Amino acid sequence: MKGLSLKSNSSNVSFPKNFQDRSSKQTALWSWLQGRWQRLIQELASANELKVWQKCDRHGSTYWEAYDPITGKRYYSGSEADVIAWIEQLYVGKRIGS
After folding, report:
1. What is the mean pLDDT of the chain?
2. CA distances from 77 to 14, 67, 91 (A)
3. Nearest to 51 by CA among 76, 21, 24
4. Choice between 73 and 15, residue whose per-residue pLDDT is larger
5. Torsion angles phi and psi, residue 52, rounded to 5
6. Closest to 47 in 3D by CA, of 72, 22, 78, 74
7. How far apart are CA 98 and CA 87, in angstroms?
8. At the top level of its lineage, which domain of life is listed (predicted)?
């Protein structure tokens, strides 16, 4: 493969053969680092937010897990409605207790 060459009326600029490969690798690395940084920032920003997941156990049954990082409380249920009720109870209790 030949090196990349740029020509203009006044000068000729040549780049090494692997310039494009290095450039694309650096771009990919930079993109990966930016993605990791954004995830870290999002995680730190949302550290105190309630988190809810739908999971699957080893038997293939789905269930819900809710976690409140402020209180450290977790709740597991097979019912989405039960998780919603737990969240409402948790936050209504916080407002009353505040």
Report:
1. 80
2. 65, 12, 18
3. 76
4. 73
5. -135, 130
6. 72
7. 16
8. Bacteria
* Cα–Cα nearest to 69, from 47, 52, 87: 47
Tell me, yes or no, if the pTM score tops 0.85. Answer: no
Q: How many helical (H) and strand (E) elements, i.e. helices and strands, does the chain have?
A: 2, 5
d(CA 54, CA 6): 55
The neighbouring-strand residues paired with 68 are: 73
Strands (DSSP E) along the chain, which ranges?
5-7, 12-14, 51-56, 62-68, 73-77
What is the distance between the alpha carbons of residues 1 and 22, in angstroms, rounded to a whole number? Answer: 14
